[in-house]
Amino acid sequence: MLELIDVWKVYRTGSVEYPALRGVTLRIEDGEFVAVVGPSGSGKTTLLNLVGALDLPTKGDIVLNGTSYTSLGRSGLNELRRKELGFVFQTFNLLSHLTALENVELPLIAAGVPRSERRRRALEMLARLGMENKASKKPTELSGGEQQRVAIARALVNNPSVILADEPTGNLDSANAKNVVELLREINKREGKTILLVTHNLEIAEYADRIVRMRDGRVESEVRRN
Ligand SMILES: Nc1ncnc2c1ncn2[C@@H]1O[C@H](COP(=O)(O)OP(=O)(O)OP(=O)(O)O)[C@@H](O)[C@H]1O
Ligand SMILES: [Mg+2]
What we know:
alpha/beta; Rossmann fold; 6-stranded mixed beta sheet; 4-stranded antiparallel beta sheet; binds adenosine-5'-triphosphate
């Protein structure tokens, strides 16, 4: 289970403070698919970055499977990020000088997996996303939808329990966007991965079990869909 307990994030620019999150409390069950929607500046990315342990709350805590983020030091947070979390970004964030296969291998290098096993697992993951025939292509040789599939393979290859996706379909045309969210839904259903997805697109949000609407750094409403 993933819990956010009265989470505040105050950004400080010089002497100016801005509370981007103002007491967010959320409880996300294992295997739940939650979409976060809300206007620009409402705190969606801030929320995802905190759950991703890329930044710590100013106040409050996040607890994943019983582990409190604020109790972990830097190396503990790094390990949690590496083992438990998979990230998917709007801009795909693939390394352009590496092939699709090498991009998918990256998290396994960080985890110290030996080379041959790395290769095998990365290929297997690409195959599961229907990308095995593109393994040797560089990102520029792939369509946006294909690049996002590679990025999803990279997010999944370490077998994380939670996938964090910030506008993963934001740079895709509607057909590819639908494709990618259906793929995430399938991974969520088939493998029981918890997914937290930020989107501006209500059609994309409709794939989630629950839609959380943010406004001014707070949860404005929640709608459970099934
Ligand atoms: N590093 C930062 N320093 C100062 N203020 C920040 C920082 N990051 C975000 N903010 C501010 O915090 C608020 C929330 O930003 P955030 O990026 O979480 O919004 P968002 O909901 O993801 O918006 P969008 O839909 O445009 O991506 C905004 O007002 C933003 O200007
Ligand atoms: Mg954002």
